[in-house]
Amino acid sequence: MEPPEPILLKEPVDGTPPVIVDSTQLAEACSKLAAGTGAIAVDTERASGYRYWPKAYLVQLRRDGAGTFLVDPIALEGELAPLAEVLNGLEWVLHAASQDLPCLAELDLHPASLFDTELAGRLAGYDRVALGTLVEKLLGYTLEKGHSAADWSKRPLPVDWLNYAALDVELLVQLREKLEAELDAQGKLEWAQQEFEAVRTAPPPAPKAEPWRRTSGVHKIRSARGLAAVRALWQARDELARKRDRAPSRVLPDSAIINAVTVDPKTVAELQALPVFGGRVQRKYTASWLRHLQAAKQLPASELPNPAQPNDGPPPPNRWADKDPDAAARLSASRAALIALAEHHRLPVENLLLPDLVRRTCWRPPADLSEASIADTLREGGARPWQVALTAPELAKTLLSKAPSA
What is the tally of helices (H) and strands (E) in the chain? Predict the structure, then answer.
């Protein structure tokens, strides 16, 4: 018997709520949320690709007994304390929580505990864990989508965008209940709770030492002098993007930076003859871009970047066989053991143990290859208790089998 066709949801069951833009509306919403029951579904909309700062431009909330609320944190800047009083003592349900928590923390909103439906889906063994996919598979609904990449800093927000935003929290609590029951049946609920807590308490990522090296296409630039030019344009672009609160790619695409460094124009006219730089908006900045390119040419050798990207970790795995054949053998055997273990437990291998931690452990394993010693190494690398319990015995056995004296 064929499963029934999923039901298409184009708008929230209770209609699209108005956007909360003043303290009176917020107080009423907070009163209703406080009177609701259970966990609260939370989501945000940002303006990635349009704005420099990854702030929330809309916060969506839904709680049983209270309904759905759309909050404009820009209009309510500095006035969100009443919302924090309600939300910060509750369990939040989010999808891909690590994407939303940083911008919510900027608003002084912090969950007491959380349930991440995307992460739960991964741990439950689903191959596809997009919100719409899980909702359709587990709840039988199809969500109207299409505005995830929109410019959410736009005001006023179109009604169809608001429908989309409200639908993102419409079924999150029901999805949580389904996934929690499934994880419990599989004996993975405790694993999931450890993962959720790790996401909730994760510190902000450390800033990249040389973020300009992430410029798309930088691998085409081989010389230190050329890399200095990429760095100069990247830093100038970043400063301008900050000032204008524009996404750096909208100020100057990475491809234009690489092209300018490759062609090495000598005059403003030559620079303007290149793609992008001759555009109406870009033309007023080309003299400045050229100055930065020329300044990079004048740098003393001591101030040029190292063509080899600094890395405090092991080299790329495809170079291990040449640099350290024993380490390559350890990594190959360890990966095979972990893949088998992950398949047995119906988990993505990257959720069983972070690939970077596996590489570091195999590149420079501890002198003591006992299970206890490997467990300590994994814990120091940030592995959760459930991960250590599952993987330490397998890794210890595998590493010991590849030890020189074995």
Answer: 19, 8
SS3 content of the chain, % helix, strand, coil (to 5): 55, 10, 40
What is the DSSP code string of 89-153?
Answer: TSEEEESSHHHHHHHHHTTT---SEEEEHHHHHHHTT-S---HHHHHHHHH-EEE----TTS-TT
Contact assessment for residue 378 and residue 391, using Cβ atoms and an 8 Å cutoff: yes
Q: In angstroms, rounded to a whole number, what is the distance separating the alpha carbons of residues 375 and 377?
A: 5
Task: Report helix, strand or coil for 243.
Answer: helix
> What distance in Å separates the CA atoms of residue 238 and residue 139, rounded to the nearest whole number?
44
d(CA 15, CA 4): 25
CA angle 397, 399, 404 (to 5 degrees): 120
How far apart CA 280 and CA 276 sit, in angstroms, is 9
Phi, psi of 40 (to 5 degrees): -115, 130
Determine if the pTM surpasses 0.85.
Answer: yes
219 neighbors 309 (Cβ within 8 angstroms)? no
For 182-220, give one letter per residue: b (16+ CB within 10 A) or e.
bbeebebbebbbebbeebbeeeeeeeeeeebbebeebee
Helix (H) or strand (E) holding 2, with range, is none
Sheet with 37-45, edge to edge strand ranges: 19-20, 67-71, 58-64, 37-45, 91-94, 113-116
Q: Are 119 and 130 in contact (CB under 8 A)?
A: no
What residue has token string 């793609």? 275
On whether the CB atoms of residues 359 and 137 are closer than 8 A, the answer is: no
Distance CA 288, CA 286 (A): 5
Query: First vs last Cα of the chain: how many Å apart?
Result: 56
Separation between Cα atoms, residue 106 and residue 102, nearest integer Å: 7
Helix 172-185 crosses helix 189-201 at what angle (to 10 degrees)? 130
User: Is the Cβ–Cβ distance between 277 and 260 less than 8 Å?
Assistant: yes
Instruction: Give the pLDDT confidence of 69-98 residue by residue, as tens digits.
Output: 999 999 999 999 999 999 999 999 999 999
* Kind of pairing between the strands at 58-64 and 91-94: unpaired
- Write out pLDDT tens, residues 185-238: 999 999 999 999 999 999 988 888 899 999 999 999 999 999 999 999 999 999
Q: Token digits for 353?
A: 């143990």
Q: Residue 63: exposed, middle, or buried by beta-carbon count in 10 A (0-12, 13-18, 19+)?
A: buried
